[in-house]
Prior knowledge:
Elements: E1 88-96, H1 101-118, E2 153-158, E3 197-203, H2 206-219, E4 224-235, H3 264-270, E5 286-295, H4 297-301, H5 305-312, H6 349-352, E6 364-365, E7 368-374, E8 380-390, H7 397-407, E9 414-424, H8 437-440
Antiparallel strand pairs: 1-3, 1-4, 2-3, 4-7, 5-8, 5-9, 6-8, 7-8
Main location: other
Keywords: Heme, Iron, Lyase, Membrane, Metal-binding, Oxidoreductase, Peroxidase, Signal, Transmembrane, Transmembrane helix
Cofactor: heme b
Amino acid sequence: MSKATEPERPAGGAEPKATEPEAGEGRRMSRRGLFGLGAAGAAVVGAGAVAARSLLDEPPVAHASSASDPYPFYGQHQAGIVTPAQDRLHFVAFDVTTEKRAELVDLLQEWSAAAARLTQGKEAGSYGAVGGAPEAAPDDTGEALGLPASGLTLTIGFGPSLFDDRFGLAAKRPAALADLPKFPGEQLIPEISGGDICVQACAHDPQVAVHAIRNLARIGFGRVSVRWSQLGFGRTSSTSRAQTTPRNLMGFKDGTNNLKLEDADLLREQLWANAQDGSAWMAGGTYMVTRKIRMMIETWDRTSLLEQEQIIGRDKGEGAPLGKKREFDTLDFTAKTSDGQPVIAADAHVRLAHPSFHGNAHLLRRGYNFVDGSDGLGRLDAGLFFIAYQRDPRKQFVSVQMSLAKTDPLNEYIKHVSSGLFAVPPGVRDAGDYWGRTLFD
């Protein structure tokens, strides 16, 4: 990544004397203090951005003009939610190891400053990978030197476990952050589930995404530890109508009817939390559910095409609803075959998950394929890392997943092995703000 202008280092390699920062750059306060507080690149908006509006309304969502360009970090909502889904993912869940509230707040401030820099194609700290004293550890790990921003977005969330008695946050736990119920058939592995804090890094270059998470973990040393992480490739949903619908590892188009950034009214209703929901600090935020879904793809690959399409409720080539010709044709759940059977089976995946059967509950899905090697028995450890955003998981994800868990024939070919639930706070407004400030006010 390109290096920001740095103070000249004096002879002997000593740490340079603090100077007034240039526009867009922050002061170096201490090795554990804030660094890079500037709003460098905050106003960068690629070609095709939605026209600017007041932050009191829905904010503009930038469309990078190329895969190497940056997205703005600052805004009413965090980037990486309705941002057009990038090609690569590095997701991490942290456990907070400090029990000092002030240290947690300091960390969130440092992370926000670093994230503002990283998402604009800069190094994590103002001294970078090679600009500081040779005797000290670098401010950046260096593996992304020379790489562009690659559309990097960083999105943070807070798990239910953060709202215990360690930091005085119990009274601020949102009702919508209620623990998920146990769903029939799930086989969750505790070691790769949950977490106090999560960070979702999405980019078009996997090295850029990994670099961002690596540097946040480095900055957090002594205050957080990595609980689990997941790499993903090949987005499994579209979050903009400008994107084509991708395919999951079962070969079917995934996320045809996903919420899109262009659906302004639905986003206000279904995605963004409101102060009237009961937790004022979450206004402008949303709730994230993650599920690692292992696919028994060898068994699926031996299943007939006809059965595969009946299980899903769409044809495999075009992605059209059964009985229709085009992917975006309206699903018709009343259509019958010549012998009186439903064209789309009563237990087809698309029927069980459809908003019309769940009080018009929509999800904004943002999942990724994964392949984590083999399981030692000649089978790929592969599947879908499901990510969904919504206004209230109790009314949205839980309703949909309970229906799927009970009767979806797809369950013969999948198993849920990891689960996460996180409150995603509103965006960082400017360089004086930080991730989660409203929670700690």
